Amino acid sequence: MTSRAILAALAVVLLPASAMAQPTDVSGVNVEGSKAEKAKRLDPNRTICRRVETPGSRTPGKKVCQTKAQWDAQAASAKEELDGIQRRSLSTTVNSG
Question: Model pTM greater than 0.85?
Answer without folding.
Answer: no
